[in-house]
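User: Modeling request: complex.
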Amino acid sequence: MAEVPAAVSGGWAPVAAVLLGALAVAAALLDGALAGRAAGVRSGMGRPVGEVARLLRQRRRTTVAADRLLWRIGGAGLLGMALMIITVVPLGRWTLFDLDVGVVWVNALDVLAWAFVWLTGWGANSAYALVGGYRFLAHGLAYELPLMFALVAPAVAASSLRVGEVAAAQQGLWFVVWMPVAFVVYCLGVVAIAVWGPFSPALGRDVAGGVTAELSGVDRLLFLAGRYALLAAGAAFAVPMFLGGGAGPLLPAWAWVLVKATVLLAGLVWLRRRAPALRPDVFMEVGWLVLLPAVLLQDLLVAVVVIGG
Amino acid sequence: MTVRTVLLVAAALISVGLYGALSQQVVVMVMMGLELMLNGLILAVAGLWWFCAPDPSGQVLLLVILAAMTVEMAMGFAVATSLHRVRRSDLTDTAADLSG
Amino acid sequence: MGVSGALARLALRHAHLLVIEVPGYWLTRVAVERLAGVRGWRLAVSPADADILVVCGSPGPELALVVASLWEQLPGPRARIDVTTPDLVAAGLDQAAAMLRDTPGQRRDSTARDGRGFDDAAGGDIALAHGSADRDGLEMDVLHVRLGPVLPEWPAGLVLRAHLHGDLIAEAQAGVIDAGHGPAGGAHVAGGDPSDEVRPAVAGEVAARRCDNAARLLALAGWPDAAGGARAIRDRLLTGERSAATAELARLRRRVRRSWLLRWSLRRVGPLPPDELARLGLAPDLTGDVWDRLNGMLGRAAVAVGGPAGVVDGGPAGVVDGGPAGVAVGGPVDVVVGGPVTSPAAVASVVSGWDVATARLIVASLDITALDVVTDG
Amino acid sequence: MVTHLAFWGLAVIAVLAGVAVFVVNSMARASYSLALSFIAVGLQVLLLQQLYVGVLVILMMVMEMAIMAVYMNMFMGMNPAMMSMNMVHGARHALPVSVGVFLLLAAGALFAPWPSRRGSPPADVTAALGVELMGPKMLAMAVVGVVMAATIVSGIVLAAHRTRYDRFGDDLRRRRPADPQPGGVRR
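Assistant: Request completed. Predicted assembly structure:
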């Protein structure tokens, strides 16, 4: 089973998009159910469905002197980003895009979140939305560097930047077992890119929804769908990087990839209910003084093990 | 796509960047001009490497250019900030006396 | 029509409300939040997010202007209802649902608005302004932003005119909207109020008010579940389920105290030493930082519920549903009980120098019951 | 064929976005035009088979432009309303000079006798680059690393206002720093 996945034709791209969509919908349903349970409402599961219906029925609006081009690009960009990320995630024996620098590719894409979220905040020409955009960049300055070094650890251990080879290198032991710090930091990064849970001050209630303050109708739907899709794509990418790819008993490799991605995704969704927001003003020091040194030590450890072993 | 066309595009990028660097007043805009010139340079080096001498050491030059860009950017922002703090201005003209 | 009808039905089950509270009508607002929650509806964070605009109370002239401009910003399909007493809330929400279900009517509304071009957004007030040095000595452009009177988790009627550097509040002036405009605008201080004789309500209401304020602070700290818990306790207190509320309150206090993440995030934010409190005319029990004040708030709620004032058990069942008798028509129904009056100037003074997020936490931590109508301009 | 079409499409995008940087009326649009130009060049570098460098260009430049846009906004207080933004000085000289430079460079590009390819590209370009960096060119990368570290330090020294004496007192004995707003790590 140590085979390296092979690229399939681009015609399978819609299938990958559908799978990502299914994961995102599952995340939304679970989030709705958890939120409903917390609020003591029975209709929790139906929340995402109702939300989609509501937003489809709602009119798009615009604001005075909005930069509509940049606003729309930002709003739709997150969804596009998520789709581009999963092109390099192998599903068992198949991958869409067998790039030999797949890890860096994902890293380059996750940086696009800086552009898209900020542009969504900027384009509306609203003070609250702009403050939300600033908050996201402030978070970005704190999480991005640790995230990059977290991705370095599996790449070093597998001696490859090709996602399929990283997955294949974990036949004996999943990377999550001996690089837990990198895994945790990576998960924090995914949560941050999706502006999710503890990293949602950019969409905070205190600034009237922040980046999303002026979004309505289809625009809001695209932005929210983009967040769920990013969370799903991040969870899916963690599978080849840390969770052993398709390795597992009984089930075929592709099924294991989906199972692992779903479980991690459920964990990330659940996190939102447990943790209060990490405001950028307090998280900045944590990112630079705790996460960054921790993940660098992790990289050092991995490098020493690889050279020694 | 030949070495000539790649270099032509690079030349266009470099000239546009040069125009910006020469004509703009605001420090940050001048920096954008410089960045655009370096952008053209990246393309030129990448093209020359691929079409003329594709041995591994050539790519190192590209990484050095990228490093130079980040250094330029970081120092540019730092100088712009400290200039702003002292002079309350972000225009290159008001810093003309710094040219000695 | 089949599709759009089904869409409308689905959408209606998950409508979002923007609730505007006229000072003095908090019981009505609480009733709206409670009954909307029962229907599975949720609170909107901004007009763009809302389907239903709920005005609790009768707004004065200034607030009426704000409400009108917010109404224009609702994307539509939209509905507006005005409720002035808690017992009218259920009917009002039914009416809003009917309005939203009326697809042809919404379509007419939509075409009527199309001619008028862009929605008039609050964001339009970003303007190029002079610069000034920020707290780090760096000259920055100043953005003049009016925080309030309608913001999620914001004290009713408070308006904070802030000068922002980025998202840092350089200085602020505070006032109360419609100050001096009859009973709707002014705060009602306990004591001389005719409703004072409704004694049984007091203990529960004081505790409910604390829980409401704590819920706001928890929501701003980004912990919606705990905030929802605090709101549930508030509703139980107001509907008279005292014993259940007391148990849940104790559980919430433990949960909050044990959350090291919350403690880490709120510690050292907005410290107010006793002498500062005295200077600003704030209550002496607000000493410490936001974390201390959050725990103090929950502690005061527990005291009010189990303390000597809470002699009547299960008595005030009628507060929300029936409404206590003896309310003058047109005047505010709600009785502001307990708690001192906070001066807006003090609010403005404690938020200066903090960024918007921490400033919002600090304002919420002041446990404001009523605002003094005297403004400082 | 597809490669050629992609190359020319990207070339047009890169140059037009580059021109747009100095033409558009908004700082956000200027910064993100430049980002677009960088992305187009990064994709062209991918076409030239240098995958690692190409992806790296996109990664770094998008990040830089996001920060750049904030700087622009911070120093110049723009809003998206597209106010006219004429910040040109000495355009008189700039235009002829840059046109002249373009003609010179273009002539060189088109008419110089470029040598034919010497050697052949390595099978795995990225791995070859890695081996090169960790082997013969290690010195170059080591120097780059030191320069980067020096840049971080000097950048902060230049830009920061408060020093550790402001934070920890003149004798550096204060246990908790006197910051206007507390950070997340208690030191």
